[in-house]
Amino acid sequence: MIAAFDVDAQRTFTPLCPHELPVVGGDEIAAELNAQAQLAQLRIASKDAHCPTAKWVVASHAEMLQPLDYPDADLTWVRHAEPGTEGFELIPGLPAPAEYDFLVYKGVETAMHPYGACYHDLAGRISTGVIEWLKCHQVDTVLVGGLALDFCVKTTALQLAAAGFNVYLNLAACRAISETGASTACEEMRQAGITLVKDSQVLAAKLQGSH
């Protein structure tokens, strides 16, 4: 059984919300996410769901990425992905949330800012339930894309690989905050046994060849 995972494919990480955390091209990945979903039997999504008074919030982009001394919030960020705002919504072209088979909402607690979608905490102790749900549905392969490649996508893929799934990372279905971050993330994922593919066409061929 194959599942497709849309990781944090929200407007907050695109130029549609320029005052939040815009990633260049972040609003251009819906077609690739939809294409990889066609290769799967199940489709799941994660969404950042943050509070405006979270302890990691800073007033400007210049203050971001500073270290914090909270066990589950390691860096400062500007306000983003607040429920009820445009930034919380999925990017144009994706299904409505109710059309997914499983949804993860993460980062709701004011002192917790997880990156991966599989755990609420940075140490990987408090499950969001998605790993257990996938195993209950006898999923063995997960196709991953979303935003941003060098943070939440990478961490989610690594968590899934560590849980024993065959993980494919669709590069065309991702965008990164920085080229350096993307390069480092890709190498880290390769080292963990994750298969990186150029796009959904290559992914389809790989999946066909593995069965």
UniProtKB/TrEMBL annotation:
Keyword RNA-binding: yes or no?
no
**Record GO biological process:** pyridine nucleotide biosynthetic process
Q: What is its EC number?
A: 3.5.1.19
- Which stretches make up the Isochorismatase-like domain? 57-197
Annotated InterPro entries: Isochorismatase-like_dom, Isochorismatase-like_sf, Isochorismatase_Nicotinamidase
Domain of life the protein comes from: Bacteria
- Describe the family membership recorded for this protein in Swiss-Prot or TrEMBL: Belongs to the isochorismatase family.
The protein in question is named nicotinamidase
